[in-house]
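User: For my dataset I need records formatted as: sequence, then structure tokens, nothing else. Please produce one.
Assistant:
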Amino acid sequence: MEIHEYPNGSITVLWQPQKCIHSAVCVKLLPKVYNPKDRPWIKAENASPQELKNQIDQCPSGALSYKFNTEQ
């Protein structure tokens, strides 16, 4: 399955286009991050890791998820 990654400091936004049902919850909650007309359409740097986590937890399809980045 295809997964796109968009890092932002301590968190990385993961997007799985095959799961997306285009409910637009992400665009409504964080329009400064999600802009379907833009490329890349996710600009994770435009929100704090906590804002991203809170929004991703509300994605109805599970197309958006996140992982925490750890120093290697």
